[in-house]
Specification:
alpha/beta, 13 helices, Aspartate Aminotransferase, domain 2, Aspartate Aminotransferase, domain 1, 15% strand, globular, single chain, 2 domains, seven-stranded mixed beta sheet, binds pyridoxal-5'-phosphate
Length: 369
């Protein structure tokens, strides 16, 4: 029996390969006590305020959540300085990336992004039948001029990650302003700011400041990274009333679960947790710069909570680190086969990862010599 016909574009999709769960790796290798520095999670865990709010909310999980997430929307809107109707929440900010593609692009349309960008962009573009168009990167950075040069009358959506994952690089205000001025008003620009809260560069543009300059701008952010709620799946987009109203029509009625809403609300109040997370990442950046210098490794200076390090054979080094109970992310799928991406962990996790990497590189050096 032939069965239903799977479209060729779906058949040929490269599934997104997430960082491997600790439990799975330990079962496979028969080891204990592993650490995961592979998915840019917050090593400090969730906010204690969020945990407390979750415990209080648990007895109510037989109820459907508030479909509009009104309490959270009002609180977040006040803190961002936008109207609540201009925020749409998603099951992770990834859902906003997908909804934007579904809203604006279809077969025959083009979705444009940088060659070194987040792998979810091609996935959601191809899923709706659009053509994914990649603009060349400039070294490890988005080249906004090269992206603008690839706009065509068929371009419906442009994805930009600032900072980018997996490179950790940013584009700055002047380049962003020049770019935005070149994008036609009927093109949707999705500015993915998943790591916004970690950036400290004074020239880093806050996407929300530009919403009035381009009617198609959608800024996405998430509770998965600095807020430490990746497992609950909640993120959001901010854009014009018109676009956000359309995105809200497209989402499922209860796309964000009640626990996620409650935890996000509480996490927004926990300035101490956010500040501690920032401090940890600052320390991680410093420590990894030192370590790379000491080990003679090239790395890409990071504005986010992870670093791209050139190790030679990224897959082999990832496997060897796994054997030592350290889970990092190989980067061949992103076109960086010589690199691994490492998330800044706790101080102890950073030290363990650096020591394991040093041992692995030394062993590989011996094996080669
Ligand atoms: C982690 C990440 C996200 C966030 O995804 P969620 O669905 O909110 O967990 C979005 N974009 C990039 C570039 C990321 O690295």
């Amino acid at each position: 029996m032939a069965g239903p016909r799977i479209p060729e574009r779906i058949r040929s999709l490269q599934p997104y390969k997430p960082g491997r769960p600790i439990e799975e790796v330990e079962r496979e290798l028969g080891i204990r006590g592993s650490i995961k520095v592979a998915s840019n999670e917050n090593p400090l865990g969730p906010s204690p305020l969020a945990l407390e709010a979750l415990r209080d909310a648990l007895p109510g999980i037989h109820r459907y959540p508030d479909g509009g997430a009104l309490v959270l929307a009002e609180k977040l809107a006040a803190s961002l300085g936008v109207e609540p109707q201009r925020i749409v929440f998603g099951n992770g900010s990834n859902e906003l990336l997908e909804l934007s593609c579904r809203l604006f692009a279809g077969p025959g349309d083009e979705v444009l992004f940088s060659a070194d960008a987040f792998l979810v962009y091609p996935l959601v573009s191809i899923a709706v039948g659009a053509t994914a168009v990649k603009a060349p990167a400039r070294g490890f950075e988005h080249d906004l001029g090269a992206i603008a040069a690839r706009l065509t009358p068929r371009t419906r959506v442009v994805f930009l990650a600032n900072p980018n994952n997996p490179t950790g690089t940013i584009f700055r205000r002047a380049e962003w302003e020049r770019f935005l001025a070149r994008v036609p008003e009927d093109v949707c620009v999705v500015l993915d700011e998943a790591y916004f809260e970690y950036v400290e560069d004074p020239e880093y543009p806050n996407g929300l400041d530009f919403l009035d300059r381009h009617p198609g701008l959608v800024v996405t952010r998430t509770f998965s990274k600095i807020y430490g709620l990746a497992g609950l799946r909640i993120g959001y987009g901010v854009g014009s009333l018109e676009v956000m109203d359309a995105l809200a029509r497209l989402r499922q009625p209860f796309n964000v679960n009640m626990l996620a809403q409650v935890a996000a609300c509480a996490a927004l109040d926990d300035d101490a947790h956010v500040e501690a997370s920032r401090r940890r990442v600052r320390a991680g950046r410093r420590r990894w710069s030192q370590a790379c210098a000491a080990l003679g490794l090239d790395f890409v200076p990071s504005h986010a909570n992870f670093v791209l390090v050139r190790v030679g054979d990224g897959r082999a080094v990832t496997e060897a680190l796994l054997q030592r109970g350290v889970i990092v992310r190989p980067m061949d799928a992103y076109g960086f086969p010589g690199h691994v991406r490492v998330t800044f962990g706790t101080e102890a996790e950073d030290e363990r990862t650096i020591a394991a990497l040093e041992a692995v590189l030394a062993a590989r050096g011996c094996a080669r010599g």
